[in-house]
Design goal:
Elements lengths: L5 H7 L5 E6 L3 H4 L4 H6 L4 H19 L4 E6 L8 H7 L30 E4 L10 H7 L4 E7 L1 H15 L2 E10 L3 H15 L1 E3 L1 H9 L17
Parallel strand pairs: 1-2, 1-4, 2-3, 4-5, 5-6
Helix pairs in contact: 7-8
Length: 227
């Protein structure tokens, strides 16, 4: 697996060209009262233990001027495809993150988005598909995405894969994402860190940003591939 070295972080995680992508820290994906726990009986302990770490990292990023982009998932009957409906229901039978339910709310343990922080609504696992995330990142000159959130093996991994395909440098912040089981989390970490990007931690990023010796690259950000 590709664990980012301090030198790589100094090159890739430049605050002016990086963005923290916070994937789906929502009631249905984090709370023991949410749909995943209630429907499948999943233990949400690992996810809930990760929330304070993610909150701290968000505050660290804010203090360094790194943009924080919030992503939330909503299942709306009018936007769901047949493949979605076959798994998650349709109409009044949609039981996960339904558009008119508490399930789409931010998890109560999360720090809330600031008024000036963009919120992207996605309609499936992928944060890029049928959203304006690409345009948002391009407008800010972002070339590196710092992937965080829930769950590592579904929406975080799907979005990280698409970010790689779009041409972004992908850094998975491994202590700021999690899944309902260690096996799922570990498998996603392996996939992303082997095939789609590099692995890092919130502590290593903070050290890179705080290092007096860090020399931030001054080249123009790479142009992401549209498609």
């Amino acid at each position: 697996m590709n664990v980012a070295s301090p030198e790589e972080l100094a090159e890739l995680a430049v605050p002016s060209r990086s963005a923290v992508i916070v994937i789906d820290p929502q009631h249905d994906f984090c709370s023991e009262k949410g749909a995943l726990a209630q429907r499948f009986g999943f233990d949400m302990a690992d996810i809930q233990k990760t929330v304070p770490q993610l909150n701290d990292f968000i505050e660290t990023a804010r203090s360094r001027g790194v943009p924080v982009v919030w992503v939330r998932e909503v299942f709306a009957d009018s936007k769901m495809r047949a493949s979605h409906k076959s798994l998650w229901g349709s109409g009044n039978d949609i039981w996960l993150i339904r558009e008119d339910s508490k399930g789409i709310d931010w998890y109560e343990g999360m720090v809330p988005p600031r008024p000036d922080e963009p919120v992207v609504t996605k309609w499936q696992y992928d944060a890029f598909e049928d959203t304006d995330l690409q345009l948002l990142l391009e407008s800010r000159g972002i070339s590196t995405v710092l992937m965080t959130g829930f769950t590592t093996n579904v929406c975080v991994e799907t979005s990280a894969r698409h970010a790689y395909i779009k041409g972004y440098q992908v850094l998975l912040v491994t202590d700021c994402c999690n899944s309902t089981t260690p096996a799922e989390h570990d498998a996603a970490v392996f996939n992303i860190g082997t095939y789609f990007g590099r692995l890092t931690t919130s502590g290593d990023l903070a050290n890179a940003w705080n290092s007096a010796d860090a020399t931030w690259a001054v080249a123009e950000p790479s142009t992401a591939i549209i498609g």
